[in-house]
Amino acid sequence: MNQKELDRKATGAFAGKVVRKDLLHQIKGGENVPSYVLEYLLGKYCASDDEEEIRIGIGAVKETLAANYFRHDEANKAQSMVEQKGRHRFIDRVEVRFFAGDNKYWAAMDHFGFSRIHIPEEFYRRYERLLEGGIWAIVDIEFRVDDQGKAGSPFHVVDLRPIQLARFDLDEYVEGRKEFDTEDWIDLLLRSVGLEPARMERRLKLLLLTRFIPFVEKNYNFIELGPRGTGKSYAYSEMSPYCMLISGGKASTANLFYNNARRQVGLVGHWDVVAFDEVAGMRITDSDVMQIMKDYMANGRFSRGVTQVLADASLVFIGNLNQPVETLVKGSSTDLFQPLPKEFDLALLDRMHFYLPGWEVPKNSKDLLTVHYGFVTDYLAEAFRTLRKHNLFDQVEKAFRFGSHVEGRDATAAKKTVSGLLKILHPGGGWTKEELTEYLELALEGRRRVKEQLKKRGSFEFYKTSFSYIDLQDETERSVGVPEQGGGGIISPDPLPPGTVYTAAVDSEAKVALFRLEVALTPGTGKLRMPAGLEKSLKESLNRAFSYLQSVKDRLGLTEALAQKDVYAEAIDLSGGHIECPCGVAFFAAIISAARNRQVQAGTVVLGDLTIQGNIKGPASITEPLQLALEAGAARALVPVSNKSQFAGLSEDVVERLDVVFFGDVDRAVLKTLEG
Questions:
Q1: How far apart are CA 240 and CA 244, in angstroms?
Q2: DSSP 291-344
Q3: How many CB atoms lie within 10 A of CB 499?
Q4: Among candidates 49, 45, 52, which has minimal Cα distance to 27?
Q5: Is 162 helix (H, G, I), strand (E, B) or coil?
Q6: pLDDT at position 323, please?
Q7: What count of other Cβ atoms lies within 10 Å of the Cβ of residue 135?
Q8: Residues facing 632 on adjacent strands
Q9: CATH 3.30.310.50: does it fit domain 487-673?
Q10: By CB neighbour count within 10 A (0-12 exposed, 13-18 middle, 19+ buried), where does 457 fall?
Q11: For 523-554, how does the pLDDT look when each residue is reduced to its tens digit (9 = 90+)?
Q12: pLDDT recorded at residue 149
């Protein structure tokens, strides 16, 4: 569907509920007013396709704001104007509260700066949201000095017209959705936040839509880290009046969760979404915050003393990456959680449901801003809030089951993400299996990104990252990766130059690393030469293998060749693990490969170490090295026969996709490693 046709369909299916988003941007830069207020005024004064009428309408909007919208610091001026004129109209946020001491309802206006304004009962009965946190409205305030004289409140609400939606009809929203196919609906949603999707790939569109999930899914924990200027903060400051954006600053138990002194629930009990902007600058003010946050992120409840509190606010963490993604992924001491405060431990990070790769989102530019119609922000916010009440958590398991590496929290995260996407994209149902598959793969990717960082931080319990899902219909299993890991690009699918062999290792803490060994023979006197900087244990392993080679060189027919050559050995750490690497078998095979000018079979990884007498020493575990090798693109793995009992513990993914070949001695290992 072309762009103008989508506009026509949007204005037809949702008459009065859509607005030209470019007009919003024309005014937004100069006015610090919520988007839904500006959109209300634009809908009133600029409901035309005629450019001259639109120009005049924009002028009317600006004049209205100048006359009726006051900043917080202009409260005294606003009150004085009412006293002088007797009556004035304001655009402000109005909330009504009942005060038991007065046995009376009072209105409060934020920018007007007064909290005891008389308001007729008809208004807060007709517009119940006045009693539920308040709404933006056009309000006429009158100045009267009643019988109470100066002691009473002189300000009276005489007229009130809500700017925010006073009533939402979900059935109407669902019926309107039926007029669009999924692709056009996605485009309409993205235009609703001011973006033009015409030049976006499908993947980018879906990634941007995941920002909406916390608005439709209860207790959803979402994180986005990426470059500056990609619209992270805007999404949570302007998309909904039900979101609280906290920019850095202090995070306290009383503010976020529960104030014991006042016996009041904190932000999580009053908002649908609590978003932490510039999370790197977040300061934890008391020791209880992190533990309570972990409890809340896990199950939506927490305890303070004898009080147990339930809440359903979703938590969003957004921040900036100050280093290239490649550096963070490949560095031994860095990961994609690097900007987060040090108090964010593994247990808390494991509660993240989805990690949006912010580095894939382009920086905001004029080219990305739409000039077409999108939903009025307040209307879309109400749709999302209504959809929070729906639960599509079980839809994944009607068509798929998860692979062995997808554990409890992983499955929960994926199902919540899919549930959110279904509510956003298919509020009335009607999705296809292909669409459900697409959403599931995205959900697993976002959760796996979380777990990959936890694994990198060195905890054994997070080593299961080979996520997959199984189609219940045909029992086919498909794996899901993360693009930034590089996966299959690390190990070449083609035969390598003679003298080059891949190996992998695991240490006592289940840290894994992938190495490429390179051997070259140069004129010399038969010495082993290694570059400075190699790990001590690696050097010892190379020396043992070389000593054994010296004892069997006659049998191998290499005496003359080695007598006139020096063996140069290099070990390149491909994963930045900086761990011990007992790689004697791989090194021995690399020397034979170089000496005989024979290539190693493509995609092969060789495990195991050698003693100086040529005995095979298997790794402590093959589970982690083979998993890493598979993810890096390996097709074959040579494994000591002493590790054969561990074969049953390998994941289905490794067993099915990796050709595991066992060997009992070094000669057989070399034979199975080299081509020909």
A1: 9
A2: HHHHHHHHHSEEEETTEEEE---EEEEEEE--S-HHHHHH-TT--TTTTS-TT-
A3: 26
A4: 45
A5: strand
A6: 85
A7: 22
A8: none
A9: no
A10: middle
A11: 888 899 988 778 888 899 999 999 999 999 99
A12: 47
CA 556 from centre of chain: 55
Q: What angle do CA 185, 188, 192 make, to 5 degrees?
A: 140
> How big is the chain, counted in residues?
676
Return the biggest CA–CA distance within the chain.
117
The pLDDT of residue 610 is 94
Task: Report the amino acid identity of residue 556.
Answer: L
Q: In whole angstroms, what separates CA 515 from the centre of its chain?
A: 30
Is the Cβ–Cβ distance between 634 and 503 less than 8 Å?
Answer: no
Selection from 76-90, 366-380, 444-458, 490-504 with the highest mean pLDDT: 76-90
Token pair for residue 398? 């009607």
Q: Give the span between the Cα atoms of 226 and 361, in whole angstroms.
A: 8
The encoded tokens of residue 204 equal 């980018």
Q: How far is CA 469 from the centre of its chain?
A: 20
User: Which of 175-189, 212-226, 292-306, 571-585 has the lowest average pLDDT?
Assistant: 571-585
**Average of pLDDT values for 68-90?**
94
Vertex 250: Cα angle to 245 and 251 (nearest 5): 75
Residue 253 CB contacts under 8 Å (≥ 6 apart), including other chains: 266, 286, 288, 289, 292, 304
For strands 314-320 and 221-226, give the pairing.
parallel
pLDDT tens string 131-152: 877 888 999 999 998 655 455 7
DSSP 600: B
pLDDT of 399 over the 50 cut: yes
Which residue, chain included where needed, has tokens 């919520």?
34
Cα torsion angle, 235, 236, 238, 242, sign: positive
C-alpha 547/C-alpha 88 separation (Å) is: 95
Token pair 């359903």 is found at 312
Tell me how far apart the alpha carbons of residues 397 and 390 are, in angstroms, rounded to a whole number.
17
What secondary structure, in 3-state letters, does 227-253 show?
A: CCCCCHHHHHHHCCCCEEEEECCEECH
Helix ranges restricted to H, 390-528 = 408-425, 433-456
In the structure encoding, which two tokens stand for residue 290, read together?
């992190």
With CA atoms as reference, report the closest residue to 378 among 31, 7, 42.
Answer: 42
The pLDDT of 229-237, averaged and rounded, is: 88
Can you give the pLDDT at residue 488? 46
For 150-259, strand residue ranges (E) read 155-162, 221-226, 243-247, 250-251, 258-259
604, 675 Cβ separation under 8 angstroms = no
Helix (H, G, I), strand (E, B) or coil at 542: helix
pLDDT tens digits for range 165-211: 767 899 999 999 999 999 999 999 999 998 999 989 999 999 999 99
The DSSP element (H or E) to which 517 belongs, if any, is: strand 512-523
CA distances from 369 to 3, 6, 493, 554 (A): 14, 16, 42, 74
Count of C-beta atoms within a 10 Å radius of residue 220: 25
3-state secondary structure 48-114: CCCHHHHHHHHHHHHHHHHHHCCCHHHHHHHHHHHHHHCEEEEEEEEEEEEECCCCEEEEEECCCCE
324 φ, ψ (degrees, to nearest 5): -60, 145
SS3 (DSSP) at 648: helix
Dihedral sign for Cα atoms in the order 337, 342, 347, 352 = negative
State the DSSP code for 125.
Answer: H
- Residue 194 CB contacts under 8 Å (≥ 6 apart), including other chains: 21, 24, 25, 369, 370, 374
With contact defined as beta carbons under 8 Å apart, do 423 and 390 qualify? yes
Buried b / exposed e along 222-243 (16+ C-beta atoms within 10 A):
bbbbbbeebbbbebbbbbbbbb
Q: Interior CA angle at 212 toward 208 and 218, to 5°? A: 145
- Phi (first) and psi of residue 422, to 5 degrees: -65, -40
